[in-house]
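Justification of resources, computational component.

The compute hours requested in this renewal are based largely on the per-chain cost of generating structure records like the one below. Each record pairs the submitted sequence with a full structure-token output. That output is archived, and it is also reused by downstream analysis tasks.
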Amino acid sequence: MDKYVEKLNGFMEALGTMNKDTNRGSEYIVVKLQDGDRILPSLAVYHASLSDKHPPEYWHPTLIETHWARFETVAAKWFFEHKVMENLPEEMKKNLLAVFQDIINEMLGEYQVYELSTTPPVWYAALWDEFVFYSKYGIFLFHFSLYD
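The structure output for this chain reads:
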């Protein structure tokens, strides 16, 4: 596994653990998608790996180019959703988000960020948000979700 992906997954898992609630779980992960110069074919390989009964096109992926501020807002919503995390001092929240951004910048350098919308043919999660980062170092899927 890529050392940066491993580092990000550890960071995100720690924040997800702090958001654990007795009625549900949180999953925050980053996945390096298949190498290539196009995002949708790389996503198709990933979606095919999730279900052998439904072809990738059944996920109906849509990408909308966005920017870091949108991604950061959504990540913050997930990272600080539980009361324990919500009540952290604002300075600590800013520091956690800055560390998150630093790791991503170190990993990707320049990148484009897309918000991913899908309509999965199978149960995927109760709620989720996904983003795809595209850079010369690869294509990365950021997944934030909660499940029962």
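The beta strands are 25-32, 62-66, 111-117, 127-135, 138-147. Residues 15 and 79 are 6 Å apart (CA to CA).
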